[in-house]
Amino acid sequence: MVYCDRNDAVLEWGSEEFIIPYISPLDGRMHRYFPDFYVKIRQADGSIKKWIIEVKPKAQCGPPKQPSRKTQRFVTEVRTWGVNKAKWEAALEWCADRGMEFKILTEDHLG
């Protein structure tokens, strides 16, 4: 994260700094989610904002498209989407409880 190291507005940052509990839709059990990054930023108005950031391929950020026949790949994509959705819903709630924001970045953002 060279960007964070070189940006004066970034006051703190870390990788996989927090553990967020979530319930997996696959087994109904509690699991631990380690979001990719934590960033504390001084905004242009001087206020401080804290973010939890997840970096994912755009293809994993929405439900998979139903193919003409059910393939193993489609089943895997459905499972991945279900787990990601559960993690992100837990992260949104966790961040809201702590005055933070959760954001997902894809290749469109990092281009």
Features:
32% helix, single chain, alpha+beta, 111 residues
Describe the model.
This protein has helices spanning 2-6, 72-97, 107-110; strands spanning 10-15, 20-23, 30-33, 37-42, 48-55, 101-105. It has 111 residues and is an alpha+beta fold. It has one domain (2-110). It has a four-stranded mixed beta sheet with strand order 1-4-5-6. Strands 2-3 form a two-stranded antiparallel sheet. The protein starts with a helix and ends with a helix. The mean pLDDT is 94.
What is this entry, summarized?
The protein is of the alpha+beta class.
Proportion in helices: 25-40%
- How would you sum up the global shape? globular
Q: What amount of the residues lies in strands?
A: 25-35%
Low-confidence stretches: none
Which structural category do the helix and sheet elements fall into?
alpha+beta
Count of folded domains = 1
**How far is it from the N-terminal to the C-terminal residue, by CA?**
14 Å
Q: What's the helix-strand series?
A: HEEEEEHEH
Main β-sheet: number of strands, strand sense, barrel status?
4 strands, mixed
The number of distinct helices, counting runs of at least 4 residues, comes to 3
Q: What is the radius of gyration computed over CA atoms, rounded to a whole number of angstroms? A: 16 Å
Average pLDDT rating: 94
Number of strands: 6
Strand order of the largest sheet: 1-4-5-6
